[in-house]
Amino acid sequence: MRGAIEIAADVRGGRVRALQIVEEALAALVRDDLVAVTRVLADRARAEAAAVDATVAAGGDPGPLAGVPYGVKDLFDVAGLPTHAGSTLYAGAPPASGDAEAIRRLRAAGAVLVATLNMDEFAYGFATINATYGTTRNPHDPSRLAGGSSGGSAAIVAVGVLPFSLGSDTNGSIRVPASLTGVYGLKPAHGSLPMAGVFPFADSFDDIGPFARSAAALKLVCEVLGGAAIDGSGLRIAILGGRFRENADPDALAAMAEIAPDAPVIELPDIARARSAAFVITASEGGTFHRAALARDAMAFDPATRDRLLAGALIPRGLYDEAQAFRAAFKARIAAMLADYDVLLAPATPTTAPEIADPRIVIDGALSPARADLGIHTQPISFLGLPALSVPLRRPGRLPLGLQLIGRPGGEGALFAFARAIEEKGVVGFSPPPGVYQGEMV
C-alpha cells in the first residue's frame, strides 16, 4: 500500500479511484496473519470510497486525505457497532449512535475507515495479548510481540496494509508499539486531540494519536485531527539522563549521541516516584470505572486484566489524592526545568520486541513482565502530560527500535520539524519488514 500523501494526491487528481484503493486494502485485511484486525468494515468502506469518487467526479475536493484507507483501535465508537474495547464484556452492548469525533473529522477530510484493530483488553497492557482476539504479531518477526496496547494499529501500518491508523496512549500505548514495529507514532499533549467517543481507561492520561510510516504523513493526520496547521522553529535540544539512560538499548544511546552530540544531558528528579504515582492513578481510575462490571461479572474479564482492575478498585481514595497532588507539584517543577528546551530525546522502549513465547524483558538486571514494563520510559512523560513523538531508528534488516522526541505542551510543531530534520539525515526512518514494499512511503 502506498503512503497517505501519495494516495490522496492521486485520488484528488483523478488518477486513481478511491474505491480501487479501498478494495486493495480490504483484500489484504481479510488475509490478516498478524492478528491485528478485529472487524473488517467492508460495506461502510465501499460507501465512503464511493462518496469520495463522486465528489471528485463532480469537480469537488474531498479533502487532504481523499480515499486514504485507515483503521482504528477497537475502542473508538463506530456508528452502528458496539464498542468492544478489546473485550467480550461489551460484545452485546448497544451499537454506537455515532462515530467518535476523530473518525468524524477524518471522514470529513476524505479518509475511509476500513477496520477496527486489536488491543489489550481495555487498553491495560503494553503487549496486545488479548484473550479473545489473540496476540498481535510483529511483522518484522512474527514470533515477537508488536507491543501495546495499540499493537494492532501499529502492526497493520508497519506491514503496509494501511497507510495510517489511530490508537490511544495512556502510559505509552502508542509509543511502545511504534518503537517495536518501526513506525512513527504520536502521543499529543494531554487533551489536545478529541477524545469524544473513545472508550476510557484513565482520564488523567488518556489521549489518542496516529501511526504512520513517515513524519510527513503523521503530521498531516494530526493536522486533520486537530483542525489547525502544525509548525515549529528554533529547536533547542536536550537528552534525558538518569532513569532514561538506565535500561536503555545501547543503540538508542548511540543514536541520541549522534543526533545531538553537543546537547546537554538533563536528569529529571523523582522519576521512579513519578512512575509509581502514575501506576496508582491509572490503576485507581481504571478500577473505579470498571467497578460495577467487576462486581456484576468479574469472570467475564481477561484474567490478566481482571486482577489488575480489582487491585485498582481497592486503592484508598487518600492514596489516589496524594498521587494527584504529587503530580501537580512535579509538573510545575519539571516545566521550570525544561523551559529552555524545545525537544528532549529519550528511548521509547528499553529493548526491541520480546518473544511471544517468553514475554519478559530485563529491567534493572532482572526479568520483568513485558506487559507491565515496556513503558518504563514512556509512563513518566504521560505523567507530565507532554507531547511525545516516537520515531524509528533506521535499522534495515534488524528489529526496530524507537526514540521519543518530547516537547512542551503545544510544542508538537517542534517535534515534527526535528523529526523531518533527522529523517533527512538518514538517522531515523521506516524500514519495511521482510517482503514489504521498499519504495518511498509518504
Walk me through the structure:
The model has no long low-confidence stretch (mean pLDDT 95). The protein has helices at residues 4-12, 18-29, 42-57, 101-108, 151-158, 175-181, 215-226, 250-259, 271-289, 291-297, 303-313, 317-337, 370-373, 379-384, 412-424, and strands spanning 37-40, 69-73, 112-117, 129-130, 134-135, 137-138, 141-145, 164-169, 184-187, 207-212, 237-240, 265-266, 343-347, 360-363, 366-369, 388-392, 402-406. The longest helix is centred in the last third of the chain and has 21 residues, at 317-337. The protein has 442 residues and is of the alpha+beta class. Helices cover 37% and strands 16% of the residues. It is globular and about 60 Å long. The chain starts with a helix and ends in an 18-residue tail after the last helix. Strands 1-3-2-8-10-9-16-17-13-11-12 form an eleven-stranded mixed beta sheet, with helices on both faces. It has one domain (4-424): Amidase signature (AS) enzymes (Alpha-Beta Complex), CATH 3.90.1300. The protein has 15 helices and 17 strands. This is AtzE family amidohydrolase. Residues 27-226, 317-415 form the Amidase domain. Pfam families: Amidase. InterPro entries: Amidase (IPR000120), Amidase_dom (IPR023631), AS_sf (IPR036928), Carboxybiuret_hydro_AtzE (IPR014087). It comes from Sphingomonas immobilis.
Quick overview of this protein structure:
The chain has 442 residues and is of the alpha+beta class.
How do the strands and helices of this protein lay out in sequence?
Layout (H helix, E strand, L loop, with lengths): L3 H9 L5 H12 L7 E4 L1 H16 L11 E5 L27 H8 L3 E6 L11 E2 L3 E2 L1 E2 L2 E5 L5 H8 L5 E6 L5 H7 L2 E4 L19 E6 L2 H12 L10 E4 L9 H10 L5 E2 L4 H19 L1 H7 L5 H11 L3 H21 L5 E5 L12 E4 L2 E4 H4 L5 H6 L3 E5 L9 E5 L5 H13 L18
Parallel strand pairs: 2-3, 2-8, 11-12, 11-13
Antiparallel strand pairs: 1-3, 4-5, 6-7, 8-10, 9-10, 9-16, 13-17, 14-15, 16-17
